[in-house]
Amino acid sequence: MRYAKTASLLAFALLLSNCRAAVRTGLDNVGSHSRLFQGKRIGIITNHTGYGSDGKFIVDILRRMPAVRVTALFGPEHGFHGVEQAGKRIDSDTHPIYKVPIYSLYGKTRKPTPEMLADVDVLVFDIQDIGARFYTYIYTMSLAMEAAGESGKRFVVLDRPNPITGNCVEGNILEPEFASFVGLYPIPARHGMTVGELATMFNEEGWLAGVKADLVVVPITGWRRSMWHNRTGLRFIKPSPNMPDLETAIVYPGLCLLEGTNVSEGRGTDMPFRRFGAPWIERQTLAARLNALRLPGVRFEPASFTPTASKFQGRRCHGVKIAVTDRDMLRPYWTGIRIVNEIRRLYPSEFEWRASHFDRLCGTSRIRLAISNRSSLEELRQSWGPAIESFTQIRKKYLLYPE
């Protein structure tokens, strides 16, 4: 009953806010691609973001298609219902309403097994991404593409807009030795692509492990690359517990780097990634130092907070709150690097690296080493140029939507 009541309330809110959405997602357009599903057993990789702009859930939409059977569901990090905290292992379950298995792809395995796919003809992916390399849903997608390719199953991506636009590429390219579930492929921290475009790139560039998926992307309509999510007419459903709104998504590609340090990134507060600090930081000093950098599109305000979970749970922290003044000018990844650098310089005795995780998030050890050695960060940033130019040339081949 809890699931049914929650789903009904969310569906009603979606219907009210999205009935005149300017942009239609792949799920909204799925009716014109019904041939992909008719007569098939369908497995769906989704979570609580898998709603159409009419307020209907993907499972209900596909089940109502003629000669379609939904036989399996798959949940990513944070679970099928999107309520579990980051990094928590999740067990498989049975859906209480649909009476089909929910296979966890963030527990004993992160890749669907042949047994999970035994009763599936077509595997469908529909999850809202954020647009940052280290957001794990895109790797749930790619590993499922591998499994589908190995099992001879078609893989269908129902595309959704990149909420932080599709026209900005920022950061260094991930180096192969730092590949992990927060970054598997050589893409920058902010890739400026949709999940459908990424899926095509992963497939065509040969990045899947020894296979190629039978991939179909059901595209978005009405979306342009310069659109921020609040310009689409679509409701923003927080895709994970600490991604409550678009404002958080805007800064996330840089502020996530604080996870690789002993500074609180604001988890356990009502402003994760938009407020950060530690008990040993002097908030006025840090705010002044960061504002003196004159980073484009952002200013910093002194703040204090007490996390109810995660780092420094129950302890008073001091730091800053981020105020975005121009989201088009903001370069969040570079901003995150400069924030870490200033905290490290101000508090060398108190600051600590979670070095392996920081390097995984950055996709390189060079950023951490440059900060530790007080090397020129600007020179390091300039050194990314050739690799980024190469990536943008590859990327152009897979862009599905107009500039």
Question: Would you write up a description of this structure?
Answer:
The radius of gyration is 21 Å and the shape is globular. It has eleven helices and twelve strands. The strands form three sheets. The protein has a seven-stranded mixed β-sheet. A three-stranded antiparallel β-sheet has the order 10-12-11, with helices on one face. Strands 7-8 form a two-stranded antiparallel sheet. The N and C termini lie far apart (45 Å). α3 packs across α4. The protein folds into two domains: 239 residues, 3-Layer(aba) Sandwich (Rossmann fold); 127 residues, Alpha-Beta Complex (Aspartate Aminotransferase, domain 1), CATH 3.90.1150. The N terminus is likely disordered. With 403 residues, the protein is α/β, with parallel strands linked by helices.
Radius of gyration: 21 Å
Neighbour order of strands in the largest sheet: 3-4-2-1-5-6-9
The CATH C-level name of the largest domain is Alpha Beta
Give the strand tally: 12
CATH architecture of the largest domain: 3-Layer(aba) Sandwich
In short:
The chain has 403 residues and is α/β, with parallel strands linked by helices.
